Amino acid sequence: MNAELERRWQLERWIAVIRLIAVSWALVEIVLVTDFSSERYETAAWIMTGVLAAGALLFLLVSRLAVPRGYQRAVCFAGLLFDTAVIWSYALVFTLDSGAPTIRALLFFPVLEAALRYGLLGGVLLPVAQIPVLVAIEWWRSDHFEPSEFRFQSVIVPFGLQLAVGAVVGWLVKRLEQETSVAHDRAAEAEVLRDQLGHRVDLLDATNRCARALGSSLEIEEAFGAFIRELRGAIRFDRTAIVLVDDGSARVIAAAGAAAETVFPPGTQRPVAGSVLDEVTNRGQTVYREDMVDVRYPEEEDFVELGLRCRLAAPLFVGPRSVGMISLVRKEPRSFTTDEIEFVSLLGRFLGGTVQNIRAYEAERATVEELRRLSALRADFVALVSHELKSPITAVIGSAKTLQDRWRELTPEQRDSFLTLIDHETNRLADLVTDVLDMSRIESGQFSYSFGDVDLGELVQQSAAAAASAQDEVKVTPLVHRPLPLVRGDRDRLRQVLGNLLDNAVKYSPAGGEVEVEALAENGRISVEVRDRGPGIASEHYALIFEKFGRVRGEHAKPGTGLGLFIARSIAEAHGGSLEVRPREGEGTAFALELPVERL
Ligand code: ADP
Predict the structure, then answer these.
(1) What span, in angstroms and rounded, lies between the C-alpha atoms of 536 and 361?
(2) Residues 346, 204: contact at Cβ < 8 Å?
(3) Integer Cα distance of 482 and 257 in angstroms
(4) How does 220-245 read in b/e, with b if 16+ C-beta sit within 10 Å?
(5) How do residues 188-240 score in pLDDT, each as one tens digit?
(6) Second label for 441, Cα 20 to 30 Å away, from 71, 110, 394, 492?
(7) Cβ–Cβ < 8 Å for 474, 534
(8) What is the mean pLDDT of residues 578-591?
(9) Which long-range contacts link 110-114 to residues 24+ away (Cβ below 8 Å)?
C-alpha cells in the first residue's frame, strides 16, 4: 500500500512538471496559433491559462514539499480534478469559439492522467464522466456551426476511443504495479537471503575459531582453556562441559564455569543409562532442556540446586557416530535462542574429532607413564635383587671359607654359629628365588594349584606357631573362632599367603610388639585378619604394595623384594577370594584375607 502511494506521489511530481510544459503550450496556442473570433473567447482563454499557470505552480510547490502521507492521496486527487476541470474549460472555450471538433482530442489527457493515477478504474470512469462534456460540445457545435444536426456519432466514437485508451493504459499501469510489487518482493527476499547467508558465515566462523582453539594443543587443560576463551566470545553460558562415552559410562573430560571443580568435575564417571548423554548419543540430536525444574535426567537435580535452569546438550560426532556431548548451562530458563541452538549443534559436529584426538593422546600418554613407572620399578627390583642376592652369598662364602681355613681352631659353638648363618642365608636365597619364580609363573599363567579341603583354623595355628618360633622378639597370637567350615583350596599356597602376611607383620613390628592373627566365619566367607602394631601404611600406598615390586620407601623400609603381597593376592584371587589392607584405628596395619566357603 505504501509502495503504491509512493508511486502516485512520484507521478504527482512528474505531472507537476508536465503542467508547466502545458502552460507554455497554451501560451503558444493563444498567441501564435489560434485566431479567436471574438475577444471574449480570447480573454477566457487567457484567464484559463492564468488559472492553469497558477495551479501548475501551486502543485509544483506542494509536490516538492514534505507533505504528510495522509494528505498525499488528497493532493493527488485534487491534481486530477484540477487538470480535468482546466482541460474541460479549454475544450469548451475553443469549441464555443470555433466549433472545431478536433478540440475533443484534448479530452484524452484527463483519461490518460486518470488511468496513470488510478489504473483501470480511473481509465474507465473518467471517459464516462466526460460524456456530458462530449454531449455539450456536440450540442454547441450543432447549434452554432454546420452541419446543424446533433450527431450521436460525435459523442459515441470519442467516448469509445477514450474508453479504449483509458482501459489499455489503466491495464498497463496495473501490470506495471504488479511487476513492480513482484520485483520489490524479490528484492526483499534477496535481502533476507543475504542476511541469512551472512549470519551463516558468522556462525561458521565462530565455530571454526572454537574448534581451532580446541585443536591448538594436545594438553586437555590448555586446549580447553583456549576453547573456553573463544566460546565465551561467541555465546553466553554459566557452565559448560565436554563429556565422552567411555566404556559404557559418561566421563567428564573438561568442565568450566559454575561449580566446575565440585559438581561433576573433570574425571567424573557416571552411568550413561538414563542421563541426557544417553539420549543425545542415541538419537544423535541436540537436546534442549528449557527448564530443568521438572527434573527429567538424574544429573539435573544438582544443576537446579546450583541455580542453573536451562541446558543445551549437543552430540559430538566422529564421522556418523556420536561419541559424547558438549553441554552449555544457563541460570535463566528458556534462554537459548534458535540461533544459539544451531551454533552449539554445529560446534558438536566440528569438535568430535578433536576431542577424540585429545582423548587418544591422553590415553597414550597414560600408558607411556605407566610403562615408565613399571620400568622404574623393575630397575629398582634389579638393584634390590642384586643386593639381596649378594649379601647372603657373601655371608655364605665368608662363613664357608672361615670354616674351611680355621676348622681346627674354632670351638664347636663357633662352628655351629657359622653353620646356622649359612643355613639362614641359603634359606633367604631360596625364598628369594622362589618368589621370583612364582611371579614369573603367575605372569605366564603356569602357577599351579592342587585343591583339597583345608581347615583354615588349623593352618592359622600352624603358621602362627612357625612365625613365633622363627624369632623371639615379637609375640604372635592366633585367635581362631570355631566352628570354622572347611574351604576348598591349596593348603601349601594358602600357607604361603599366611606365612607372607605374618612375616611382614613380624618384620615391621617393633621389638616386644605383638601380632594377632584372627580367623572367623561370616556371611558365607572365612576371614583371616593379620594385625600388627608397626608403622602402618599410608592409604595412598594401598594400591602400590600389591603391585609387582611395589614397596614403600622411607624411614620404615625393610629389606624385601616387593613380590610377597603380589603373589599372596594372586593366590587369594585364584581361590575366588580377596586380600585387602584395612585401615586401622591408631597404630599398625591389618591385612584381611577372605575366602569363600562354598567353593567347588
Ligand atoms: P616385601 O615385604 O618383600 O617388600 P611385600 O609385597 O610383602 O614385599 O610388601 C610390599 C610392601 O608393603 C613392603 O615393602 C612394605 O613397604 C609394605 N608392607 C607390607 N606389610 C606391611 C606391614 N605389616 N606393615 C608395614 N608395611 C608393610
Answers:
(1) 38
(2) yes
(3) 59
(4) beebbbbbbebbeebbebbbbbbbbb
(5) 999 999 998 998 898 889 888 988 888 888 887 788 888 888 898 889 999 99
(6) 394
(7) no
(8) 88
(9) 110/80, 110/83, 110/84, 111/162, 111/165, 111/166, 111/169, 112/165, 112/166, 112/169, 113/15, 113/80, 113/83, 113/84, 114/80, 114/84, 114/166
Q: What is the pLDDT of residues 149-181, one digit of tens each?
A: 888 888 999 999 999 999 999 999 999 888 988
Backbone angles phi, psi at 41, to 5 degrees: -70, -35
545 CA from centroid of ligand 1 (Å): 6
Q: Determine the length of the chain.
A: 600
Distance 500 CA to ligand 1 centre (A): 9
Say how many Å lie between the CA of residue 423 and the centre of ligand 1: 24
Structural Rg of the chain based on CA atoms: 54
- Among protein residues, the one with the nearest Cα to ligand 1's atom 2 is 560
The cell for 93 is: 472555450
Q: What letters, b where the CB count within 10 A reaches 16 and e where it falls short, cover 480-509?
A: beeebeebbbbbebbbbbbbbbbbbbbebb
As a whole-number percent, the residues of the chain with pLDDT over 90 amount to 55
**Average pLDDT of every residue of the chain:** 89
Q: What are the pLDDT digits (tens) for 308-363?
A: 999 999 999 888 888 899 999 999 999 999 989 998 998 888 888 887 888 888 88
Q: Is the distance from the beta carbon of residue 564 to the nearest atom of ligand 1 less than 6 Å?
A: yes
Mean pLDDT of 564-578: 95
Distance CA 95, CA 99 (A): 4
DSSP-derived letter for residue 145 is S
539 phi and psi, to 5 degrees? -60, -25
Q: Whose CA is nearest to atom 8 of ligand 1?
A: 562
Rounded CA-CA distance 142/136 in Å is: 10
d(CA 545, CA 553): 11
CA-CA distance, 179 to 210, in Å (whole number)? Answer: 46
Whether residue 101 is preceded by a cis peptide bond, meaning omega within 30 degrees of 0, is no
**The cell 496495473 sits on which residue?**
174
Q: Is the CB of 389 under 6 A from ligand 1?
A: no
Q: What is the 3-state secondary structure (H, E, C) of 339-391?
A: HHHHHHHHHHHHHHHHHHHHHHHHHHHHHHHHHHHHHHHHHHHHHHHHHHHHH
Closest C-alpha to 400, from 421, 382, 383: 421
Above 80 in pLDDT, residue 121?
yes
DSSP states of 160-212 as a string?
HHHHHHHHHHHHHHHHHHHHHHHHHHHHHHHHHHHHHHHHHHHHHHHHHHHHH
pLDDT at 93: 80
The three-state DSSP-derived secondary structure of 44-61 is: HHHHHHHHHHHHHHHHHH
